[in-house]
TrEMBL record:
Keywords: Amino-acid biosynthesis, Asparagine biosynthesis, ATP-binding, Glutamine amidotransferase, Ligase, Nucleotide-binding
An individual GO BP term: asparagine biosynthetic process
Segments forming domain Glutamine amidotransferase type-2: 2-187
Name this polypeptide is given: asparagine synthase (glutamine-hydrolyzing)
Pathway connected to this protein: Amino-acid biosynthesis; L-asparagine biosynthesis; L-asparagine from L-aspartate (L-Gln route): step 1/1
The species this protein was found in: Choiromyces venosus 120613-1
Length: 569
């Protein structure tokens, strides 16, 4: 992950530049490797870089050959090698960066450029000839991105990877909508991402194709191994992260065999990434590390250890104490820029783990976000009244991922200069999995949650195939990440909140909270810590995660009646 701060049409851009560089510094944790900026006309782009691809040549902002187009990007373009081949022969690339392809697509494709990209990204591009800025965000909002305006500088538009860059200068801020592009030439923000599944009222009837689900997810993981640095996988021991780890282990082994290297030695390469000729990917350092965290003896770390041993990854297990988790809360909220209970609960161990990962020299990890939204994996889905409502809820959850799990995965890791990639949210995989008849996804007495995903990777009827995972993992019941790290974590948060917030405070919430007043002491506690660090204009960017079809408001999986705890804490 990198960090962006930009302003289009600032009335005094040269006077503003020193402040702009300070605002950009607020996201240097996202990109600790290098800083860059460019000012042209009344527009300034700044960039804080985390180098993973094109590490020796991809400093940003990138500049076109004629010096008229400038680009700052946060993200990865997985199909950049394919796109490079489609460009005219006279196009000259100055770097090995996967992001440079955007610079060369823009002159011919304009605001349609994002449609051609397969990846996770937020970018701001400035065309100085036409005094035009375009800004876009990936289809699901895997990368964090915000847009702001200031009554002090009417006509100026601000963009940043995080709120903390914008609130000192903007009095209106929005979370930039995923799958959209802003064009200063019209002042409009339009949706470029238009998949078949977007309308929740259109309920698909396509029968499940288990083989297609398997091969599409495998290809998604393969794309995301594009790197010139050591990489790993976040392994909770649950179904989603374990499947991603299993596929990554297989693809890493293939990369080693194809290059004829052993023990993670560097593979000679020019450009890393997926290629259209043989559907393979090039990664520079093929050695898979896995990482898990939890309280001592927690469900996740026990299961993760079993998975890592089965897959043969280089496994790193970390424990944290309840006090260490509590001590980190304020910093977690600062980096998350959220007061949502579910997000904070799950982000704290992820934030602590990311620091350990960075200390080991790993910059990129694969993670399992998105599966529960796609397949209706949260335990409350058992209460869905019909397949139509089940489907509508999955679409809503996917559309809101940028405010919940994607926000958590992005910001918890970026806080320490680590990049999280999420294979389940691949465009092609979404197209396949969200167009399955939702009747196939319903949770019944005969079918555990995410049955079709489990079945897709069940090789019991393939006698010659090596199983992707042991059955005890493949068919393990869902744990919310905040539960799986150890049930004591949720309990200590509730107990501490009980001491920090009085009954009187709960009865008299702050007037400025309006209709968004917290309904528990834990939520009240988090909201106060948020308000201490962020002004009022930041609050509308936060969404609170609550389960549907349940009288229980606590988002923990344990609070749902279908959950059967298999571990005693």
């Amino acid at each position: 992950m990198c960090g962006i701060f930009a302003c289009h049409k600032h009335p005094e851009v040269h006077k503003f530049k020193p402040q702009a560089l300070q605002l950009a510094k607020a996201v240097r944790h996202r990109g600790p490797d290098w800083s860059g900026n460019v000012t042209s006309n009344n527009t300034i782009l700044t960039h804080e870089r985390l180098s993973i691809v094109g590490i020796d040549s991809g400093a940003q902002p990138l500049v076109s050959e004629d010096g008229t187009i400038f680009l700052a990007v946060n993200g990865e373009i997985y199909n950049h090698r394919i796109l490079r081949k489609q460009l005219k022969p006279e196009v000259t690339f100055k770097t090995h960066s996967d992001c440079e392809v955007i610079l060369h697509l823009y002159p011919n494709h304009g605001i349609n450029t994002p449609k051609l990209l397969d990846g996770m990204f937020s970018f701001v591009l400035y065309d100085s000839k036409n005094d035009r800025t375009i800004a876009a965000r990936d289809p699901i909002g895997i990368t964090s991105f915000y847009q702001g305006w200031s009554s002090k500088t009417p006509g100026a538009v601000y963009f940043a990877s995080e709120l903390k860059c914008l609130h000192p200068v903007c009095d209106k801020i929005i979370s930039f909508p995923p799958g959209h592009i802003y064009d200063s030439a019209t002042g409009k923000t339009t949706r470029y991402f238009e998949p078949i599944w977007w309308d929740p009222k259109i309920v698909p009837s396509t029968p499940v194709d288990y083989k297609l689900i398997r091969t599409t997810l495998e290809k998604s993981v393969r794309k995301r191994l594009m790197a010139e640095v050591p990489y790993g996988v976040l392994l909770s021991g649950g179904l989603d992260s374990s499947l991603i780890a299993s596929i990554a282990a297989r693809e890493t082994a293939k990369a080693k065999a194809k290059a004829g290297v052993t023990n993670g030695s560097a593979i000679p390469h020019e450009l890393v990434g997926i290629d259209d000729e043989d559907d393979s990917t090039v990664t520079a350092l093929p050695e898979l590390h896995s990482f898990s965290i939890g309280l001592p003896g927690s469900p996740d770390t026990v299961a993760a250890k079993k998975v890592a041993k089965y897959l043969g990854t280089v496994h790193h297990e970390f424990n944290f104490t309840l006090q260490e988790g509590l001590d980190a809360l304020r910093d977690v909220i600062y980096h998350l820029e959220s007061y949502d209970v579910t997000t904070i609960r799950a982000s704290t161990p992820m934030y602590l783990l990311s620091r350990k990962i960075k200390a080991l020299g790993v910059k990129m990890v694969l993670s399992g976000e998105g599966s529960d939204e796609i397949f209706g994996g949260y335990l409350y889905f058992v209460n869905a009244p019909s397949k139509e409502e089940f489907h509508g809820e999955t679409i809503k959850r996917v559309k809101h991922l940028h405010l919940s799990d994607c926000l958590r995965a992005n910001k918890s890791t970026a806080a320490w200069g680590v990049e999280a990639r999420v294979p389940f949210l691949d465009k092609q995989f979404l197209e396949v999995s969200l167009n399955v008849d939702p009747a196939e996804k319903l949770i019944t007495k005969e079918r555990i949650e995410k049955f079709i995903l489990r079945k897709a990777f069940d090789t019991s009827d393939e006698p010659d195939a090596k199983p992707y995972l042991p059955d005890e993992i493949l068919w393990r019941q869902k744990e919310q990440f905040s539960d799986g790290v150890g049930y004591g974590w949720i309990d200590v948060l509730k107990d501490t909140a009980e001491k920090m917030v009085s009954d009187e405070q709960m009865k008299t919430p702050k007037p400025e909270w309006g209709n968004d007043a917290p309904d528990t002491k834990e939520a009240y506690w988090y909201r106060c810590m948020f308000d201490e660090q962020f002004p009022a204009q930041c609050a509308p960017t936060v969404m609170r995660w609550t389960p549907m079809w349940s009288k229980v408001t606590d988002p923990s999986g344990r609070a749902v009646s279908t959950h059967i705890a298999k571990y005693d804490q």
